[in-house]
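Why should sequence recovery work at all? Because a backbone constrains its sequence more than one might expect. Tight turns favour small or flexible residues, buried strands favour hydrophobic ones, and helices have their own preferences. The token representation captures these environments compactly. In the example below, the structure is given first.
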């Protein structure tokens, strides 16, 4: 099933999920509205454009309207398969795993600049994509933007730090997987599939999009190599 921006804006995805057993776990419309408005109210510099940090599917399928995208690095967090997916990439009976930001290390990714005029529209849509289950904590975190003409994997003195919206793991959420072994991660990625398709496709698309940006993620590459070796 391919989810479009229109599906999110019109609430089609939410309506589909509401009819499933997991529907009782969805955040209410009121809670979603309150959450994104609280995030907007905590914006360090109100009235300006904002940056959104992407580390997984946002890189290859952002859906948001943005004016600019740049390579960016977030320090203090790293990406990993920390979130059980019982909808998008799995089911309640056979959960998959998707990426989440958790404490420690650093995470290279892509930052998207959303204009001040579009902020409310885009945040409302973004929350319908990322926060239906409330498994993430939206935070304004400092990211280091690469220069607009930066060459991937090359050192450059041209950079700037800006606050960016990032969705980090809520360790208290029931879907937080914690630190799993490669064996455990692969057991979920290997066979799980959900509304958005197989969990292994999520890993493949993310790894391919990182490569296109010139970003090397040895952990994801290792997992993908192990899945491929099983296919041969």
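From this structural description, the recovered sequence reads:
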């Amino acid at each position: 099933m391919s989810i479009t921006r229109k599906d999110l804006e019109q609430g089609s995805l939410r309506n589909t999920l509401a009819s499933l057993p997991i529907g009782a776990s969805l955040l209410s419309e009121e809670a979603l509205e309150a959450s994104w408005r609280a995030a907007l109210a905590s914006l360090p510099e109100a009235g300006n454009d904002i940056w959104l940090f992407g580390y997984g599917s946002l890189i290859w399928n952002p859906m948001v309207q943005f004016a600019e995208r740049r390579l960016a690095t977030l320090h203090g967090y790293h990406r990993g398969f920390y979130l059980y997916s019982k909808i998008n990439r799995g089911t309640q009976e056979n959960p998959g795993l998707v990426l989440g930001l958790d404490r420690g290390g650093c995470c290279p990714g892509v930052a998207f600049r959303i204009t001040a005029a579009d902020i409310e529209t885009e945040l409302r849509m973004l929350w319908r994509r990322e926060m239906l289950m409330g498994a993430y904590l939206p935070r304004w975190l400092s990211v280091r933007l690469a220069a607009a003409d930066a060459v991937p994997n090359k050192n450059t003195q041209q950079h700037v730090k800006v606050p960016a919206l990032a969705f980090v793991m809520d360790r208290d959420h029931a879907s937080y997987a914690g630190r799993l072994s490669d064996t455990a991660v692969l057991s979920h990625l290997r066979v799980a599939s959900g509304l958005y398709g197989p969990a292994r496709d999520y890993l493949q698309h993310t790894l391919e999009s990182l490569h296109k940006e010139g970003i090397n993620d040895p952990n994801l590459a290792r997992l993908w190599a192990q899945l491929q070796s099983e296919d041969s």
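A few observations help interpret the result. The first helix runs from residue 5 to 9.
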